[in-house]
Amino acid sequence: MTPHRLPDRLLAGANYPLGASWDGLGVNFAVFSSHAERIDLCLFDAAGRREVARYTLPEYTDEIWHGYLPDAGPGTVYGYRAYGPYAPERGHRFNPHKLLLDPYARALRGELHWSDALFGFRLHSAHGDLSYDRRDSAPFMPKAVVSDEAFSWGDDRPPAVPWADTVIYEAHVRGLTKLRADLPPERRGTFAALGDPSTVAYLRRLGVTAVELLPVHAFVQDRFLVQRGLRNYWGYNTLAFFAPEPAYLADGSANEMRMAVRRLHAAGIEVILDVVYNHTAEGGEAGPTLSFRGLDHASYYRLSPDDPSLCLNETGCGNAVNLAHPRVMQMVMDSLRYWVQSFRVDGFRFDLSATLGREGNGFDTGAGFFDALRQDPMLSRVKLIAEPWDLGHGGYQLGRHPPGFAEWNDRFRDGVRRFWRGDPAQRGDFAARLTGSRDLFGHRGRRPWASVNYAACHDGFTLTDLASYAEKHNEPNQEGNRDGSDANWSCNWGAEGPTDDAAISETRARVRRALLATVMFAAGTPMLLAGDEFGRTQRGNNNAYCQDNEISWLDWQQAAGEEGRAMTGFVARLIALRRAWPSLRATEYRDGGQELAPGIAEIAWFDEHGRPISPEAWNNPGERTLVLRRAARLPNGRIPMLTMMLNPTAVDRRFQLPPPVRRSRLLLDSAAPAEPERALPEHAASVTVRAHGLMLLLSGTEPRE
Predict the structure, then answer these.
(1) pTM score of the predicted model
(2) Which end of the chain, N or C, is surrounded by fewer C-beta atoms within 10 Å?
(3) Which residues are catalytic?
(4) What is the three-state SS of 475-516?
């Protein structure tokens, strides 16, 4: 709250920490700008509608403007105005008529309402000329709120799940629970619902060890989407790097998110945040002035060296954050530490991380940002996941991130899709993906967990749609079906979309189960898209970023149906098998040459006749079936062998068990998911692997009790 009697001027305060910091007696305000000539602090009433006071920050130390407001405290609503040159040709866009959000704002009051007054220039349509705009943007801007960070964590402890044991569940805070009829309407789609005991219990029953949340930083609804009656559902349009998205807080308090983290931790489940530090919601040079642009455009953004009036756009979102500037780097690092310290999150997935690794000569695996993360005593100990690409030149950097990072592996995604679709010449690449993509990650001491393996994620088809549509159907996005990738490696198996054909439905179900089993049984870190465990569909939309509706939300009535429950049970069984057998959770790369016992290598490949695969057979484009046997020595000396038999063809095939043939036990048949574990006949030397099926056998040890 603001003091009852406002002083005439601010005290000097301190230049650290950045942001608005309450010390129990007042609030210190500190904001960076190396090119501003003056910065004013604007105070507003509790609703954020009326400006009640304005002060010039009195001190400027090490390029930090700062001042101290006595007797102020949590709940104080504020914004900034920055004075300086409006010279786009030199990269400067100062305009004190534009109210600016504090880059370190930890809570927001009000929403952004689109108006031309948000822009620092005015376009003269006759000639395309730009002129300085003097309209006040404050009525249309959200404001920052001074926050109280107090929260009782009790006996909370990070689950600290080892990477090799990690199973990720990628989810959206809103979409996960928006259709949960068993929760009060005002809680659905919020952190309160995520942390509800029933949600936590579901995730625990499924067996996942980490929830990876799509962006939860406060973000902006794009103007062009609002004009179309759509919304930015995914949230990759960050406005405030320190504030939770207000729409995800049922009671408006950030402690709601903290409580959700605490309850997930109590269940042994980690929380990973998908974070967007590569660009901001201000867009390109023609975008609005909301925060960073008005405070110091030339410092916060990467600008064209040939024309500083233009933003570099390696992200495809209009701008790229300038991590080469030490204060901008500090902001990102402070933000990451804040989420770990104040919210106790367990890791981050970096959107378009290739942008974060760009130096003067392009992507650099030793970029300053990566070095800063790796040496940080706090951040180097949490899970770090890269989306290893952007849209800039040389932007595809899969496998080139430094040790300590895991990476989304789209080579795995595409490879498993093509294999189970039945494409020719897939065996060699598919084998590399099954064993942890050593060709991509097997250097600098990196481990198989560095490969985040998935068949579907938020960006693209859901698993059900992957087996139901040959083409994308993005018409609801109102972009003429031009958006979204055309390279989906999908198949509809005889009908586009929903069908009553029982044979087609059975084939689709088999392919989905085989894909899920492949993800869970491959070396690496498996990731499951929320809802894929019970058959969620987006009706063929492979770019549902703007569909904040039933297209994107999880249908829990479907999950409760007979098919949904059966599929969810199957996925839980896959995860349980992965957890039970060490050879399915490789902790390091194996070359297959080491024998654990005579004739038993750690990794061995066979064809369906039980013969080792020759180089000629590996390169034969017509060969599609595959057998992988993995063995591991247990602490008790036993050497269980897990044999995975894969038949992506359209007909049942008879597979010979590879030598040495020992009595085996069926652990899983993806083509017959209801079939329980059972011992095979004592002298069985072959099994039938059904069309589009994966079979997992155990031999070499006594059955588990």
Answers:
(1) 0.97
(2) C
(3) 351, 387
(4) HHHCCCCCCCCCCCCCCCCCCCCCCCCHHHHHHHHHHHHHHH
